[in-house]
Design goal:
With about 250 residues, the protein is of the alpha+beta class. The protein is built from 4 helices and 15 strands. The strands form 4 sheets. Strands 8-7-9-14-15 form a 5-stranded antiparallel beta sheet, sandwiched between helices. Strand 4 and strand 5 form a beta hairpin. Bound molecules: 2-amino-4-trifluoromethylsulfanyl-butyric acid and cobalt (II) ion (CO). The site of 2-amino-4-trifluoromethylsulfanyl-butyric acid has 13 residues, from strand 4 and strand 5.
Length: about 250
């Protein structure tokens, strides 16, 4: 079932979204050579709690962190730990926060010091594919209109979209209906209605789309070992322009 949020619920989601976006920004500022992914995770957790919210990911299906921190060929769900970031890494940070019964969910990929031109292009294309996607995120359109716009932009730039993981509805639950794939046929999928809230999250690989899951049960990596980037915001569907609830978008 796709839930439609009332004006009051939307106000609560704005509040959750603001905290989530600020946690993402904080994490991004910490991405520097010599910092461990655990230090970033701790800071994210402290920030979320200081703001009266609860980290959405912590203990979700047993997930052991407050942030997912995925470096280089890690696509998503990287577990924070002793890994020390180094110059040239690209670092995807995904955070979620819950307050007033509603979740926010957002992510971005950050450069660690100086990175290659190709890595920067991957980050830029991934981010822009989200913004291409939300040009279609409007009442009356269909979910896969968003999907097709993301896919088209990514592939036109020579990169690939991950298929096994998708965006999602979000609200009282971190993951709600509908699924929001980053590939698909325009004109298909559920109709978009005002009051829907969607986490739209392109996961983009520099090489092939194929991924593999590590034996830690979480970390997802590219099969070919090439780089991957991620960008996500929680978005409200209206009868006009979509509203990014995890604002400010980075
Ligand atoms: N943004 C990711 C998602 O929507 C968050 C993963 S949550 C985790 O799936 F708790 F499972 F890590
Ligand atoms: Co998400």
């Amino acid at each position: 079932m796709i839930t439609l949020k009332s004006p009051h619920e939307i106000e609560l989601m704005r509040r959750a979204g603001k905290i989530t976006a600020a946690a993402r920004a904080l994490a991004g500022e910490m991405v520097k050579p010599g910092v461990t992914t655990r230090e970033i995770d701790r800071a994210v957790e402290q920030f979320i709690r200081k703001n009266g919210a609860v980290p959405s990911f912590l203990n979700y299906h047993g997930y052991p962190g407050s942030a997912c921190i995925s470096v280089n060929d890690e696509v998503i769900h990287g577990i924070p730990g002793n890994r020390m970031l180094k110059e040239g890494d690209i670092v995807s940070v995904d955070v979620g926060a819950c307050i007033g019964g509603f979740h926010g969910d957002c992510a971005a990929t950050f450069p660690c010091g100086e990175i290659s031109d190709e890595a920067q292009r991957l980050i830029d294309v991934t981010r822009e594919s989200f913004f291409r996607g939300i040009t279609r995120a409007k009442e009356g359109n269909r979910v896969f209109d968003i999907s097709a716009a993301v896919q088209e932009y990514v592939e036109a730039n020579g990169f690939t979209v991950v298929r096994e993981f998708v965006g999602h509805g979000i609200g009282r639950q971190l993951h709600e209906s509908p699924e929001v794939p980053n590939y698909g046929m325009a004109g298909r999928g559920p109709r978009l209605l005002r009051g829907m809230t969607l986490a739209i999250e392109p996961m983009v690989n520099a090489g092939a789309a194929s991924i593999r899951q590590l034996s830690d049960g979480w970390t997802v990596k590219t099969l070919d070992g090439k780089l991957s980037a991620h960008y996500e915001n929680t978005v409200l569907i209206t009868d006009g322009e979509p509203e990014i609830l995890t604002a400010p978008a980075i």
